[in-house]
DNA sequence: AGTTCTTTGTAACCCTTGTTACTGTACAAC
DNA sequence: GTTGTACAGTAACAAGGGTTACAAAGAACT
C-alpha cells in the first residue's frame, strides 16, 4: 500500500504524513459500477483516490439524477470532506466509474492532521478549491450549453476518464447522467454519427473526432 | 469597527483573533449595486461580511449571466478564499445587493491564522462547506426546476435577503439573474399575479403569498 | 402639454427538448 | 432453431421557453 500511496501522493505529503496514512488507512478495492457512498449516508471514513475513477451524482426528491463530475487519482471527495468535518449526511452519491483503489482514513485523523501537517491543510484547501471549480463548470454546462454540446462534453470527459476512445454505455445510461430521456440521446448521437464524429455500436460509442 | 466585528463574529472567533482582525482589517462600505469583485480580478483581500448582502454572479464567454447565490452577514466568499489561497483569478463577480459593510483582510494573514487559530480554520472549512452546499442548491435549481419554480424561488430568496416583501427590480434585471429573457419573466410574473400570489407595480413586485 | 425614454403587456412564431408509441435488431437463454 | 429481453431507430406530437415585434403605460424632462 505504501508504494501506491507514495506514487499518488508522494509529491504532496510529507514523509511523516505518508507514514501515518499507511498506519491508520485501510486499502479498499471497488469494482467498476459499485456504489461507494449513497445519499443520506453518514460518512465515517474519508477516501483518498489511489487508482481508478469515481463518478459523483446528484439526485433530487423525485429521483431525477444528474452527473456532477468525475474524480481521478490524487483527488479526494470534498463533499465527503465536508460531511466528515460537519458530521452531516452525504448530499451526493459516489459510484466507481472504473475499478478503483481507495485508502480510507478515519475522520478522527482529519482534525489532528489539519493542525499538525501543513501539507495536509494545503491538500484539503486545494481539494475544496478544485471541487468548487468542478461545480462551477457543471453549472456552466447545464446553464449555458444545449443538449448536443453537453453530450459532446460528456463523451469527451468519459473517454478521458476511462482512457479509452471507446465508451461503454447504453443510450439510457447516458440519458440518466445528463438528466434527459433516452430518445433525445439516441437522436443526438445519430446526428453526431452522421457528421462522422462518432461510430455507434450496441452498448458502446467510438469517438472519431470531437 | 471592533463592536460590529464582535456582533457578527464574536460567537465564532477567539478574542485574540478578533483583536488581530481589528488591527489588520480595514472597514469598507459598499453601496447597493456597486461591484466588489469582477471576473478575472486578482484578489488581494479577503472580505468578511459584517452587514448587508452580496450577490454572486457567474458569466460565460458570451456574456450570459447567472445568479449563483447570495451572501449574508457572517458569510465570507469561499470563491474568493479559494482565489486567495491559490493566487488565481476570480471566477465570479460580486455585487452589493444592499448597502454593505465589509472587513477586508490581507491574504498574507490567511496562512498565518490558519495554523494559529483553530476557530479560523473551522470558519474557513465551514465557509467552504456552506458554499459547496449553495452551489449544489443552485445546480438543483437549474437542473431540476422549471422557470416558473425558479422564478418563485428567486423572489423568495430576494425578499428574504432584502428583508422586504416588496422587491425592487425590473423584469429585465430578473431575467438577467435567471439567465432568460424579459418576455419570459413578464409572462410568468403575470401568471403569478393572476393567481393572487404577487402584486405587480412598475419597478417593484410585492409578494402576497408564495 | 408635448416629447422622449423606460418599463411592461401581449401576440405570433419557432426551436429545442421531452413524450408516446411502435419497429427492428442484437444477443442470450431455452 | 425459437423465444424473450435489452437496446436502438424513428416518427409524430406536445410543451416549455426563447425571439421578434409592436402597443400601451409611466416617468422624466422641457
UniProtKB/TrEMBL annotation, chains A, B:
GO molecular function, one term: DNA binding
GO cellular component, one term: cytosol
A Pfam family matched in the record: cNMP_binding
Residues annotated as domain HTH crp-type: 145-210
Gene3D superfamilies registered for this protein in UniProt: Jelly Rolls (2.60.120.10), Winged helix-like DNA-binding domain superfamily/Winged helix DNA-binding domain (1.10.10.10)
UniProt-listed CDD domains: CAP_ED
Keywords for this protein: DNA-binding, Transcription, Transcription regulation
Sequence ranges assigned to domain Cyclic nucleotide-binding in this UniProt record: 1-76
Protein name: Crp/Fnr family transcriptional regulator
Organism: Salegentibacter salinarum
